[in-house]
Amino acid sequence: MAARETIAAVGAGRMGRGMAVAFAYSGHPVRLIDAKPRSMAEFDRLKAETLAELRRTFALMADVGLMQADEIDAMLDRVQVTGQDDLAAALAGVPFIFEGVPETLEAKREVFDLLSRHADADAVIASTTSTILSNDLQGFVTPPERFLNAHWLNPAYLVPLVEVSPGDATDPAVTVRLTALLEGIGKVPVTCAASPGYIVPRIQALAMNEAARLVEEGVASSADIDKATKYGFGFRFAVLGLLEFIDWGGGDILYHASRYMTRATGQDRFAAPDIIEANMTEGRRGLRDGRGFLDYDGLDVGAYQKERIGAFAAMLRHLDKMPVKGD
């Protein structure tokens, strides 16, 4: 098997450490670079703390069956923790660099200036920011064509999804290279435009605020709301994507439910977007029409439904929530 490419994670906080675990687990050498200027004593303390946390994380992964305990030392040996003073040497020959410093423009500007000056000319530079658009950061990187955002979800070493968001100046080949790297370690990259909230944070902000609002309004207890989201909302969307779910039941259900909720609550936040009504008008209600948000032309519907129901059954077994079967 060919040697894995070396990865640099700049910023030794939670995200940097999570990425270090993810890449080291998959066999990549990792250079975890502390981006802050520190005294030797301060850096030594940070390095010891970082390596101790990485060891605990690998041990936890072994405890839950993701690896063997006797592999921990080999995983740790793949991670080199370095300080800002050694930045140039740490970046030499590294084809992929992930930035994970604090979420301020000033912090990003400073680190991207360093990376632009010391990284290899063809190295891909990606920010893991969850808040700042790639178009707003791209001007800090030279040349900007090699830059894009790659938003990992915590815990980074477990959650498969990475939201890849190229900027207007990003070379499409850079997106392809980064996507291939992520797929190579078992991640599921999705590409989205430079838009506030990407995909998941935008959806989950609405869902989490609505859950908090239910508590505020006294609709249900916190425990029951969490139970409802775990065994109803989350259960279904672990198998079916949100748009696939609309198609599964029919877009007309969402259309009518949205109209009812808007009238009953007097809140416009429940109103359906124009695309839902357009799909109704155009006969794109979903699976039964052969098209909706997704195209089902030529699909073996019976086999598709059987596969999805099988996935639901597997989830029930995993959660130990199989239906009670009578005699």
UniProtKB/TrEMBL annotation:
Primary location: cytoplasm
Q: What is its EC number?
A: 1.1.1.45
Return the GO cellular component terms, semicolon-separated: cytoplasm
Q: What is this protein called?
A: L-gulonate 3-dehydrogenase
The lineage's top-level taxon is: Bacteria
Q: Which GO terms describe its biological process?
A: fatty acid metabolic process
Enumerate the residues marked as the site Important for catalytic activity. Answer: H151
GO MF annotations, alphabetized: L-gulonate 3-dehydrogenase activity; NAD+ binding
Please give the family membership noted in the entry. Belongs to the 3-hydroxyacyl-CoA dehydrogenase family.
Ranges for the 3-hydroxyacyl-CoA dehydrogenase C-terminal domain? 197-296
Q: Which ranges carry the 3-hydroxyacyl-CoA dehydrogenase NAD binding domain? A: 6-192
Spell out the subcellular localization from the entry. Cytoplasm
Q: What are the alphabetically sorted keywords of the record?
A: Cytoplasm, NAD, Oxidoreductase, Phosphoprotein
How this chain assembles, per its entry, is: Homodimer.
Question: What organism is recorded for this protein?
Answer: Ruegeria sp. PrR005
Record carries keyword Transcription: no
Pfam families found in the cross-reference section: 3HCDH, 3HCDH_N
InterPro entries named in the record: 3-OHacyl-CoA_DH, 3-OHacyl-CoA_DH_NAD-bd, 3HC_DH_C, 6-PGluconate_DH-like_C_sf, 6PGD_dom2, NAD(P)-bd_dom_sf
